[in-house]
Write a structure and sequence with these properties.
The protein has helices at about 20-25, 30-35, 125-150, and strands spanning about 10-15, 40, 50-55, 65-70, 75-80, 100-105, 110-120. With about 150 residues, it is α+β, with helices and mostly antiparallel strands. The protein is globular and about 45 Å long.
Amino acid sequence: MNPSTTDCIRKEIHLRAPRTRVWKALSDATEFGTWFGMKLEGPFVPGQPVFGRITHKDYEHIHLEMRVERMEPESLFSYRWHPYPMDLKRDYTQEPMTLVEFHLEAVEDGTRLSVVESGFDQLPADRRDEAFRMNEGGWTGQMARIERYVAS
């Protein structure tokens, strides 16, 4: 898999879980929130927004919007969001959203899960680098979280 660029973060992990299990952990908003660390207010529906808040300690004040793009069972789940919306005084709704894509592939002894987040180059210059840096590290942590979640 190609390494990350300034516009795109790429991560990949081999999960020792069937693709059906990984798909449910991604596509069910309650399960997604459990391993990701957020509380979502509704189901994932393509073309629809879903709102929620982060549940990680020290980040509980962060509210977010995800706009589900595509849900291709056991293959692709994608959404758009405003990455790293930490400044409570800032209106992120006028900024472009990045695109997050989860790709699933059945492999021997489990599932290959790839995540690609793209669109950082279109973010306002004053926050582009920090949003990229924080999400680059964030996706490393989230891959470990889903690995533990689907193994339990």
